[in-house]
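Page 42, continued from yesterday. The earlier attempt failed because a stray header line got pasted into the input along with the sequence. Redoing it now with the clean sequence only.
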Amino acid sequence: MTPDASPDAASFVRDHTVYSCVMGSRAFGLATDGSDTDRRGVFVAPASLFWRFDKPPTHVEGPAEEQFSWELERFLKLALRANPNVLECLHSPLVEYADATGRELLALRDAFLSRAAHQTFVLYAVGQRKKLEADVRHHGAPRWKHAMHLLRLLIACRDLLRTGELVIDVGADRERLLQVKRGEVPWPRVEAWMARLAEEADAAAPGSPLPPEPDRARVADFLFRTRRASALQAYADHEVAQGLVGGGLVGQP
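This time it went through. Structure tokens are written below.
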């Protein structure tokens, strides 16, 4: 590739993915016959592409339907900020692919978990609840599927703060949550459940076994080593190419 050539977005997912998993209802234990298969992944853009004016993308949608991937650095930054979607991606029970770098990323899962998740999960939940309440005001009912997933998120947040572990499969709460999705639970009861879960999360936060902050140093070291390995590979590939163009092997006089 010439220095000014730009690879298409799909090639980052196709050629440089280090981790991919299934998310959504299938990972949460809430799938039904009509559920989509949502895929999420992480790719590592070659280091040489960062040495250009036009940088690699921070994320890519597709190329398959319901597929979304982050470039490693963007993913790590979001995880360090306790972004709920990204943290849950690291804890999917349905891992489809992980190379050596992906496995090391999975081994770092605990480095991202901290009490900061309390605020980020709750703030996200508050935003989603306002949208549900607007639906009730304007249409007489919420989007029940969204209400179900908000309850699921609050359950995960409460249990994370209580135990220090993020488990995204709803387990025994499956049928109760699916009743919400089907609109079989009155909105006031759903509201009360949401309020109780938020209160339980607030109560668990002060004594949580989670550390106050994520382990940024461990994550930074992982990113540095990954980028360094990519840069060294780019240099080795360049040397090989130069040697072949010159009619000999690299290292020969």
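Notes: The first helix runs from residue 9 to 16.
Reminder to self: strip header lines before submitting.
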